[in-house]
Design goal:
The chain is α/β, with parallel strands linked by helices and 402 residues long. The chain folds into two domains: 217 residues, Rossmann fold (3-Layer(aba) Sandwich); 164 residues, Glycogen Phosphorylase B (Rossmann fold), CATH 3.40.50. The protein is 42% helix and 16% strand. It is built from 13 helices and 13 strands. The strands form three sheets. The protein has a six-stranded parallel sheet, sandwiched between helices. A four-stranded parallel sheet has the order 3-2-1-4, with helices on both faces. Helix 6 links the parallel strand 6 and strand 7. The radius of gyration is 21 Å and the shape is globular. The mean pLDDT is 91.
Amino acid sequence: MKIAVIMRKLNVSGGAQRIALNVAYELQKQGHLITLYTFFYDAEKCFPELLKNFTVVTMPRSQHHRTFGLLGILSENRMARAMAYMIDRNTELLYPDDGPAHHVAYYYKKYIRNIPSVWNMNELPTMRWPLELLSIMENRAYHDIPWRPLFLKKFLIRSKTRYERGFIRAQNAIVVFDKFHQNMLKRYAGVESVVIPSGVDVEAFHYRLRQPPRHGARLNLLSSGIFLSYRRFEDIIEAMPHLIEKGLDPCLTILGDYNTDVKYHRALKALCVEKKVEQRVVFFGRYSDEQLQKYLAESHIFIYPHLQSQGIAVNETVASGLPTIVTPLSGTYETVEDGKHVLFALPRDPISIALAVVRLVDAPELYQLISSEGSKHMKEHFSWKRQAGEVVALMERVMHQT
């Protein structure tokens, strides 16, 4: 098949980009003809080793528009319509990845050729969480999102949901990572979807035999993610004084581009000073795959406190045998078992994180069990090849039905 993979941006090295590019690469290895289409592109900042395998068509900068705020929604939609006309007319199937790539597919199907579209939805475009949880999911002190009263925020989300339904329902099939978003999509858009968990490169993130951390010795903690307020890095920072009280010597490295949310980065640095752990926390910034591997090898525990749906970073750390603490919200936690593959900590709860860390330090046998069993679980059940195979099977069903 000749497939157009459509993404909003290929100018950062984020989890969404890693997943989409690896699946596209597996599709290409199976003989499918893949072309990437994107609004924003920077070959040096977005997994250059992966991108070199593809033909990339990017929107000219002259057609870029401001995409923030209410008017930004309309501007981004204009960009989506323009990009639809950039896609090869001989394309056989559209594979939009997240929003507003599904808008591009909608306009291609409407104005150019009505071919099948399989949309990979990372998050419902109108909201990250159900409306009833909205009041507790954002922290005004940490993000650059304009503050609005809760009633107004809910009204805007409901309005945008109605606006989005036409674009969503135009897709021939929709892929989600977890049951959480499958239920969200059904509830708010009235559309069914297929759950296909993301994979991991089990060869690159292979198991490493690890020595459990010891009381009194340096404890290397690791976390990662492009800086956005729902990452909740503050929960790890606030957990550190509790670890020190328990006689541990924690040092935290956070991998990820902090220029994506300058206010959040500044607030985290101030929090480190307030908690007197500024000498123990390193904000590393953007990192390469080689640097990631180095930190995975040197760290004792990975902590994933994010309020988000899918954590490719968790798949990678678990596969490498690095004991991992995650908040059981959605996505990743559906595919792992607490106390066997990872440890769960309560969301938005630094004390719970600290207790999970102490538990791993105090129980070397648990530490080694999670290290080995988690890696085995990822190797046996998750891979890019498996994910791509399930995506192709869905694509073929859609092609036969249309």
